[in-house]
Amino acid sequence: MAFSSDLDQITRAAAGDPAAVSALVDRYSGGVLAVATRMLGDVQEAEDVTQETFLRAWKALPDWQPRAKFSTWLHRVALNLCYDRLRKRREVTMEHLPERTDPALNPAEELEQKQRVRAVEAAIIALPERQAAALTLCALQGHSQAEAAEIMEVSVDALESLLARARRGLRASLMERTGS
Amino acid sequence: MSARNITAERLLALIETYGADVDAYPEDERDSARALLTAEPQTFAAAVEEARSLDMLLQAVPAVDTPADLRARLIDSAPKPAKAAGRRWRLPVWIPAGAIASLSLGLFAGMSVAQTSTPAQEDQAQQLVYAALGFDTYSMDLEDEAPQ
To answer: Is residue B104 part of a domain?
Structure first.
């Protein structure tokens, strides 16, 4: 369903139809930005990656061949851009992660929640990049095993191995941080 | 998709890989996983509990929304409609129309003058051209060129 709808919108977006362009941005920019944010831990860099990903998409639209889902292709481009940036900087800081507040929580709970979330975000970024990507795609973004494997260009078995190691690493890292 | 029977070892691997929520498992293994968890809850209790605590931490990570300014930049960087893009480089309609009108008027005026000129006027005009080109006189050049 989404596949054929994508094709129609891609054709119209390539011709410059503003409604189709907006629909593609609204459908996919959040997912791309989320993957980049989880992988890079830097809001500005994640936005840059998202913009670069969409620029490449717009260039590719006129010659688009529906061999893969547009979503898969888009996430793969974003992931590769993240890998490039991570290779350029091995040391990651968490200073620029966005502040988020939940109005349902009281200040003490909110602080505790914020600390927990930041610890998880930091632990994900500290994982080896392919493990972080697998975990982000499946556990945070809700991609199916097949989709995530296709985005990462690995087999489902390899994806499972990455996911299992990611969860083990995450648990160990969080236990180390909390001292429990 | 046909259901696949799984072993206790495979179920432990699924819990370790995907967490405590059976809905996150590969589709063809969900039914068997549920059946095994129901049949032998104690065997998997510790693994499920450990996985669930990590699942809860992951679920607490908030979703990322696209900020309005980024959305605007993404849309702005997209291809523009072909018509609008072409028109950007096209001259306004009145410029070629004006040029054609001027050319027609000039041709008409030129032809009108040529038709009304006399042989004496033409001779005078030719002398002026010769003088402008640096020759002394039109008549002298003609005499020099005349056969002896």
So the answer is: no
Q: Which residues of A65-93 are buried (b: 16+ CB within 10 A; e: fewer)?
A: eeeebbbbbbbbbbbebbeebbeeeeeee
Give the number of residues written for chain B: 148
Look up the domain containing B115 and give its range: 111-148
Indicate the domain borders of chain A.
2-178
Helices (H), chain A: 2-14, 18-40, 43-60, 70-88, 107-126, 129-135, 145-152, 156-178
When divided into structural domains, chain B yields a total of: 2
Structure-token match 């190691």, residue found: A165
Q: Is residue B100 part of a domain?
A: no
| Residue B74 included in any domain | no
Given a cut of 90, is residue A80 above it in pLDDT?
yes
- B45 contacts B56 by C-beta, under 8 angstroms: no
Is 0.95 exceeded by the ipTM?
no
What does the pLDDT look like over B7-53, one tens digit per residue? 999 999 999 999 999 999 999 999 999 999 999 999 999 999 999 99
pLDDT > 90: what percent of chain A? 63
Which residues of A lie inside 8 Å of B (Cβ-Cβ)? 13-18, 21-22, 25-26, 29-30, 33-34, 37-38, 46-47, 50-51, 54-55, 58, 61-62, 100, 113, 116-117, 120-121, 135, 138-140, 145, 156, 160, 163-164, 167-168, 170-171, 174
Instruction: Note the pTM of the prediction, 2 decimals.
Output: 0.71
Residue A109: pLDDT band (50, 70, 90) is: confident
Give dist(CA B102, CA B47) in Å, integer.
Answer: 90
Q: In this structure, what token pair is assigned to residue B72?
A: 């605007």
- Tens of pLDDT, residue by residue over B85-142, are 444 555 555 555 666 666 666 666 655 555 555 556 656 655 655 455 555 544 444 4
The verdict on residue B65 lying in a domain is no
What is the amino acid identity at position A55? L
Q: What is the CATH number of domain A2-178?
A: 1.10.1740.10
